């Protein structure tokens, strides 16, 4: 025993200095000098080679170590990680699972299985291990983020909303997290909560007009007109040359293809701008959207005429695409 333990300790000290090639040379010498079946030396050599980025040789010695002593969870994990780094997730899965048989609650090992199962297309197995990783480490922001993303792509939106709520304590200062919550709440018609999430995101990352318009939209849908007006005005202040500045919220809704809200907003806007011909034209187009959008027809003069202010000049006619996208001249 004394014969190999002294150089073994010397190699371990070299590892502490991160001198992996020198440590590997000592481990190789120990193996050549009668300790070829020593599982610990085989593992340490494999680990040193992994640290030196010699993955092929690392795999060889780590495999020998787990053959000699198969019940050591950390050794299976290291071999699994080497295999994963080599782009061999199927084999990595076997060793990660062997590690978890010994230590079934290790969240980082479940996370590695999530990555490998994802790589081979086993979505359900991947999600199951991701959920176990989160259950084992509730304070890991990355796990909350991934669970929410998985649920958005595969499950009901209310499940995504719950996952985002669970992760909120670890993402309070992250505006993108609040934006994700706002979008999730909006999809569930939880408009007040959506608006509040947009408000938090806008407080953390101001000067994004589009997000202020989205906040205004959600306040409007929640019946909170004063908050909607304040958010919309803040957005217009950041985008003074935009169509929203002249035509009001209707321009925002029109660009989004939300003709109901556009029509209502334009009708309100006309009260303060009774001689704005283009505003009247937009109001008529959005109001007649159902029939004319469905058939992609231009708005007939007989329908437009009575709605235009008599003292105003007729605005340039927009092509039929205006009824479909709200973007003049743009056809999808």
What does this structure look like?
It is a single chain. The protein is an all-alpha fold and 332 residues long. It has a domain at 252-332. Helix content is 74%, strand content 0%. The chain has helices at 2-16, 20-35, 39-51, 55-68, 73-85, 89-102, 107-120, 123-136, 141-154, 157-167, 175-187, 191-204, 209-221, 225-238, 243-247, 249-255, 259-272, 277-287, 289-295, 301-304, 321-325. The longest helix has 16 residues, at 20-35. The radius of gyration is 32 Å and the shape is elongated.
Key phrases:
332 residues; 21 helices; disordered C terminus
- Write down the oligomeric state: single chain
Number of helices: 21
Helix content: over 70%
- Terminal Cα span: 77 Å
How much strand content do the residues show? under 5%
The gross shape turns out to be elongated
Rg, please? 32 Å
- Overall mean pLDDT stands at 85
Helix-strand topology string? HHHHHHHHHHHHHHHHHHHHH
Taking pLDDT < 50 over at least 5 consecutive residues as the criterion, the unreliable ranges are: 294-299, 311-332
**Which structural class do you get from the secondary structure elements?**
mainly alpha
Major sheet: size, sense and barrel closure?
none
* Overall strand count: 0
Give a short summary of the structure.
The protein has 21 helices and no strands. With 332 residues, it is mainly α.
């Amino acid at each position: 025993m004394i014969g190999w333990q002294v150089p073994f300790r010397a190699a371990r000290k070299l590892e502490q200095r991160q001198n992996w090639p020198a440590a590997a040379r000592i481990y190789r010498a120990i193996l050549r000098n009668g300790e070829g079946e020593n599982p610990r030396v085989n593992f340490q050599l494999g680990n040193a080679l992994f640290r030196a980025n010699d993955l092929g040789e690392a795999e060889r010695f780590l495999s020998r170590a787990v053959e000699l002593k198969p019940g050591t969870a950390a050794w299976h994990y290291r071999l699994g990680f080497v295999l994963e780094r080599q782009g061999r997730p199927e084999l990595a899965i076997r060793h990660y699972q062997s590690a978890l048989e010994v230590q079934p609650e290790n969240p980082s090992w479940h996370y590695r299985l999530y990555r490998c199962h994802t790589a081979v297309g086993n979505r359900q197995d991947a999600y199951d291990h991701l959920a176990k990783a989160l259950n084992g480490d509730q304070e890991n922001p990355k796990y909350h983020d991934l669970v929410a993303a998985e649920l958005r792509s595969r499950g009901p939106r209310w499940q995504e909303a719950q996952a985002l709520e669970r992760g909120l304590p670890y993402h309070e200062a992250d505006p993108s997290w609040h934006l994700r919550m706002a979008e999730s709440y909006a999809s569930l018609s939880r408009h007040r909560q959506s608006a509040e999430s947009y408000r938090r995101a806008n407080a953390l990352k101001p000067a994004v007009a589009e997000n202020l318009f989205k906040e205004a939209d959600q306040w409007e849908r929640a019946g909170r007109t004063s908050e909607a007006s304040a958010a919309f005005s803040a957005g217009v202040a950041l985008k003074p040359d935009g169509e929203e500045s002249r035509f009001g919220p209707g321009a925002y809704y029109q660009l989004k293809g939300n003709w109901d809200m556009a029509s209502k907003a334009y009708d309100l806007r006309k009260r303060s701008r009774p001689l704005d011909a283009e505003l009247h034209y937009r109001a008529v187009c959005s109001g007649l959207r159902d029939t004319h959008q469905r058939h992609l027809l231009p708005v007939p003069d007989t329908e437009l005429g009575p709605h235009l202010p008599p003292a105003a000049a007729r605005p340039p006619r927009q092509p039929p695409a205006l009824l479909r996208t709200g973007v003049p001249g743009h056809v999808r």
